[in-house]
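Repro case for the chain-ordering regression, as requested:
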Amino acid sequence: MSRTVSDNLLSAINKVSGIRANSRLTVYKNRNYFSGLDSTSGSPTYAQGPTITDMPISQASRYDSANSRLYTLFINPTTEYIEITTTGSNPVCELNTSGSPLLSPKEGKIDAFFPYLYRINKVGELICSTLNMTTLKNSFTSGPLDCVSSEEVIETLTSGSPSALCALGEKEFVRLFIDDGGIGIIHYLYSGGSWVKNTFSHRFMIPDEVLPDSPESAYCLNFSSAVKRTDGIWIYFSYPSGEVKGVHINTDGIWSDIFVAIPKDLSVFKIANAFVDINERIHLCGQFQRVDSLDSFASDSIWNLLCSSDDGKVFTLDRNVLFSLMGYRFSAIPVGNNIYYIDANRYKVLTGTYNSIYENTDNLVLRKQITEITGSADSGYTLSIVTANDALLDHELLVEGNVGKLEIGVNTSGSEIEYTIWDTCIISSVTTNLANAKRNLSLEMISEGSYRLQQFSYPFYLEMQGKQSFFDPITDMSNLYKAPNSSGMKEGFTVDFWNQEDDFSGGGLAPMFHNTAGSKTLMSGDLKDYLYLVDYPIIDTLPITFKIYGWSHIGVMQGADYINDTTPYTNPNDDFIAIIKVQHADGTDETITLTTADATDKSYPPQTWKPGSSRVDGSYPVEYIFDTPDGLVVGDKILEIGTLIQSTSCTVFYVERVEIPEINMYIDPDAFPQDSSEIADITGYDPMSGTTAWDFNDGTLQGWVEGNPPWGNVCRTGAAGLQHTSSFYYSNGGVGWTAGGGQWHEGDASFDVESQGLIIGAGVTFTGTYYGVHSHAGFKINAAVECTDGSKTWAFGDIFSGDTGWLSEGDSGTFTVNFDASFYGKTIKRLWIGCFGYQYDNASNKVFDNLSLNGVTVPDEESFSDVTAKKGIIIKNLGIPNVYFSSKPYSAFNFESCVNVKILGTYSYAGLVGLAEDGRNFICGRYKTGTLQIVKVRNGETTILASASYTSSATFVRIMFCHTNGDLSIRVMEAGVWGAPKLTYRWKYDDGPMATDPDLYHLGIFSISDVPKFRICSFDPAQSTFVGLLSGYDTSLFEAFPSSGTIVIDNVIYTYTGKTGTSIIPRGPYQLRCANAWNYSSPADGEHYSGNSVEITYFDWKSNPTYHEEYQNYIVASNAGYSWLINEIDYKPWITTGGLLIYLNHRCRIFGFNLSLDTYISCADKMFITMGLTGVALAPDQESFLHSEGSYCYQQEENEIEFADYYASSDDQDSTISDLISKICKMSGAKPLFPGDKTHTTLSLTDGVEEVL
Amino acid sequence: MAVTEYITITTSGSEISKKFYAILTGYTESHQKTQSIDENIEGDPLITNGGIIIRFSYILKLSYEMEDSTFGTKNDLIQMYDLNNPNAEPSDVLTLIDHYGISHTVKFEGPLELNPLTTMIDGEDSFFYTPIRLIEVIDE
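-- result from build under test --
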């Protein structure tokens, strides 16, 4: 510790006669605390109680030294008049201008720097009003106070009104306003005769919340403040989530990054005001409360804190910051040596503490009372004090926590004692020793830093993070890991009723009936288990459409004839009524059953069995609308659906399935036998490929670095290195040099590859053209490749042959220097090009010119892949979003991340995720050939926020995705250089919260090969050549399949030769009943049928002559691997029993092409009438495989996604251990010093040269 | 001011109350100030005063027997001296009425030594010079 010692003191100490030393201790008040107010009069009637409210009244307390008055300005929350009062028993007055009241939206915040009042009026005009301070000096009387001298409209706001205005000085303030979901900031300064605006290019973004541009949102802006000191302007805002963040404008008008001023710790800190003290320490006054969503640690107590910061960035939260538990929204206003703690003109005034007014605060000097001082700066001091008159025993300043300034004094001349500060400490304990004739005190004092650090605690959670940056070469999965809760395969909601075996008959779901009036409830069963979903489908929009597919007819099962069925045709068939069982956000389950009146059209399907029925007009499907009044809430999870089937008649009925098109469900990828990825050798690794990468014809070096002297030109005489002043140049379309006569010259230049991106294990080929002039003995061109292992290999161009083949004047042509496959397994660091020669001519001649390096090619593909390879992640699955999180940085709100990835295929996307909670909630910057996109994914649903056309010529594309406080961007490295962003996006309110988790913002990589696909009924190549589309699922992607081609099902590759039409609605599932051969004419309508058939429980009593070929050339498919192409259908199948004609009025008979009766079939099989692919056969070398119901059929095309490396960095400041220690110390109130540290304002580093710090 | 030629010592419950003669040179009232003297770090004294201790020292002239029973004998004094239990009745607290008739609450301090002046150590003619010290205490 160094101390300032005066010359007089040194002289006294050095006196041979000795010195008389003494000491003294000055104790300063270091804390204010009160539990009662000095005055409550003059408070407006709308003053709020001791609480933290979401709707604070706007108030600003400011002291005017000229009037010696402390004023408080309000916006009356009822009238929205701006009102003013001053301390003492004064009324609240309305500010008037020319008889009219000043108005401002009650949700905003006004502020003043006398005589200027900054406000926004009711029509959105931002106004600087000048107040008549003479009027304000007079005694107040209630009512209007006409005291506005003039008003100036600064600007008319088109948005962001109301706002919070924070005064900084005379005609200077900042405005915080709602800016498309975030909070924008503008600095206003009247300068040079006009108002100058400085707008923050980013915003305060609340990760899990966006603020609507509504007046109510502006209430939260009241919890803000700004101050100005010599190093610029500091702006603070209390986030609704609890922490205080800030931003700084330096004296050049440059905005800083956003920083955390007060972190949250199951707590909120609501700013009331801020001020700067005489030593430019910033003080932040506000309300503090413990909050906890689980209520374990929440408290109703509101603490009033006055925190401080020297650097403006980190505020203290030590024990001395608490000044009251009264809980009002106190502002702390310094007035001389006092501080007014004031809220709504209620106040308490106390002398400021040492923390704000330093040695001007209350103090106690102890000198004669001290009997002994022992200790050291490290361990602290013990002061023994005798208080002979007992006065110190209960002195209010001799308490723990106060500041003690310990001084050593020496008589310097005469009786003068000159003191020098020995240490400034905190009283850590006071011990009293009382006995007869003994009144001793012992003060334990420790250094301020030690004391504050010992007392400092963050009781729940505190994590200090510096910048985290990580490069992952992805040679293994030690960093990347699969994101939890992956998205799965997105499908529209559909489910059948084949999950309820209690309703089965004959092994499957058979048609049902009731012979009198009756009802039946069919439920789907647990959706998640039955459909292999990653989670229950979530209702993310309302209303939703509930579609019930099925049939019902009146009468009895297997009627002999509708003529003999005695059921009156006027009887109603069944109504199908929608049932939905949901789980609300609070965990409660609710089953909601609609009524027939809720059906959007008919509540029943067509009744075709008995002619004359009025219900032949039924709906297929029967549709219902569920909405909020029915009891659903967005966010509900659908646990189960069902159908209530009821009629007053005897009926036969069958329900196929239910669809809800507005709802998505996500199939668990684990249900499919697909490998997601593997670490393996990647192919085609050519990030620097291109034959015209460096063409010098434009006269620029394009990243190549000259030697020193230029191009490393060395001119020698003989063997010695005598430098010549010739110059090597690169203009006029090439490189060359001029030289003096008869000298040897050589020169080179290099290109840094390592800093542009790694090239691992590749060969390099240089190509170029040359043109030689005036060479005596000729010249040569060579090139080299330098690797990170230190190797540097030079080689001549192909036009040279050893020591022969020198180029001469007039020569020209092309050259190639080839390092074919020479650097496998190495990392290339730098490329070199050089030339040298000898000439004796005069100085004005050139040895050669127009050396043009046309390009460097780093070959790849096969020549590379079969040697030492670069490993990476190869994505293997199709149709499934792959999200891998990076272990580092573990969480970053603002970030920069980068990936090097090969993306081949029309449907292949790859990129980077950020602000991710899990595999279903993140934002993503991604690329596919031709397109860059920034997307938002919520519950697996992808929304494209922005896109731009872009195509990279490189096989491997290096993509960078960045986020800075609501601003997103994608860059792509081209020719080794990051250019300007290719795509940017500014987050909008309509996009919703940026993150779905308030605390975790993971980073990682993303990919999907989103090739056309559809779910299949099933497929067994040993039984069938048709692949049918599962009913209820999206048919649009099937339509994208070409008429013939190659498909992949469960990793097995097939070819197909055709596809059916796409104009039907796939039906089913139905139950298979039987298979038979027939040859008959229909007894009902005479249509003739012959051949092999299957009967399935699809009933529709309609004209065979008209409809028998309705589904011809479509597919009847099972879920057991077999399927056939349909020829025709008998909708009125019949049999005879005992000679009696019986119509099978619960099924149809399907005659197929090549339908084989040898196929093993079962009543347990589901059957579908659907579209699909035909002529499906195993591709060569593929093995037969039974693909079950719901498997995905993918269009096979060339698509590859291979990640070569990954890099990410959080936006936190780069921190050393000392930085983190410093931050902790500052939070505790201690001032850390690192005396051994060296700070370099600037430091230039040279590659390969060690810099001793 | 009226003075008496004797002092009176009475036990706390007035069980024993006797007069005693003190020889002329044998009674002293002393006031002792208690204080501590520290030196501060500059070498100056710091004096802290404590309480004032008031002592009464008498040399009593006792007899084995006294014709006037209001006067205490050697055994009376021993009996009062031996009162040692502050919580008993009578306690160790005594009331001294000095020669000025002023009452003091006192306790015995120091030894009780009965020094015979005569060869006869019993009877009315036996005398003992007996120094006693009484110290004024708080009336508990």
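Ordering looks correct now. The longest helix of chain A spans residues 1217-1228.
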